[in-house]
Amino acid sequence: QSPRACRLENLRAQEPVRRAEAEAGFTEVWDQDNDEFQCAGVNMIRHTIRPKGLLLPGFSNAPKLVFVAQGFGIRGIAIPGCAETYQTDLRRSQSAGSAFRDQHQKIRPFREGDLLVVPAGVSHWMYNRGQSDLVLIVFADTRNVANQIDPYLRKFYLAGRPEQVERGVEEWERSSRKGSSGEKSGNLFSGFADEFLEEAFQIDGGLVRKLKGEDDERDRIVQVDEDFEVLLPEKDEEERSRGRYIESESESEN
Amino acid sequence: GLEETICTLRLKHNIGRSERADVFNPRGGRISTANYHTLPVLRQVRLSAERGVLYSNAMVAPHYTVNSHSVMYATRGSARVQVVDNFGQSVFDGEVQEGQVLMIPQNFVVIKRASDRGFEWIAFKTNDNAITNLLAGRVSQMRMLPLGVLSNMYRISREEAQRLKYGQQEMRVFSPGRSQGRRE
User: Among A202, B7, B46, B179, who pairs with B167 as Cys (CB 3.0-4.6 Å)?
Assistant: First the structure.
């Protein structure tokens, strides 16, 4: 895109221009086409996630900094090439008669006041574990060297059918003229042929439809009904007491 | 010191030889990469490349390049290729034949499956350390997510989440699969 001169004679304090409602919260975005934002090559988003709300996994073309303005929760970042270092305790799950074993990458807790980093192209999810709303202020650097596309934030979701509110007003109006404004987009699997996904994941057609979110109207923040199970180290005190238990238990072992 | 450094820089690296493949599946094919680690001069030009060979009806896992665009030139055979954008819309769904070029933008997700004749390509990438992120298979985004997150993401049972996460055992290059068998 050809660069245009920055018009910085009159700066304005700005409010979000759009809001996308979701099952367990809402997302507000500032206008990407705004002169000041375009000049600096940045974009701002605010997520409000209700208790037991899950911000669906996705990745974007620009690195982001996230400030936790309120609440606390956990998040997972899927860093390519890194191992799934959190694993089920096999002995415990067998003795509990559980058929499920799991392993995944590190889960990171966060709380009010934390600044979180999300590298470009790396997918992440966030979950509100608290009793109050979780408020996240997201800054995206769209002119960062890591972004090689245009200076607009593009979010690629792995699930759900999120509305692409990140796009600027100009693009919004363009799509509005085509009659698609406000329509739900699909997640990134929705554009692929069923047979490709069946083969790639070795799953049946029913599961492919769920992967593509065909009957799913949920936006980017979804409500978690059942207990949200992830592998997470216990708090220090519990860990210490459990450590003593393991120590005494293994005294007779080689 | 130029004659000891710049003048003696290695300016070539073979990525076509099968025995040097970085990824290899005897039923699926192979992929080799040249980046600044394997050819340091690429750091100066900020480019890298990938050579791929897919055997008959084999498939490359759904993937995207984290930090670069990819320009793929088909050197032999043909493949059905699908590319999906951030709206979840298919922006390319078609056959790529020998001699054709397809540009795949950064972060756009791509799947390719070779025809009966197989498929070979060279992809040029606009980053000296292009990183590929896989969405299915033994080392992929799905494997990195907890079962609890998967079942809530897709509103599926824990059993289904386990199938989705652990169903595909291969990595990056997949052997001709179930749907291929069904077609036959």
Answer: A202
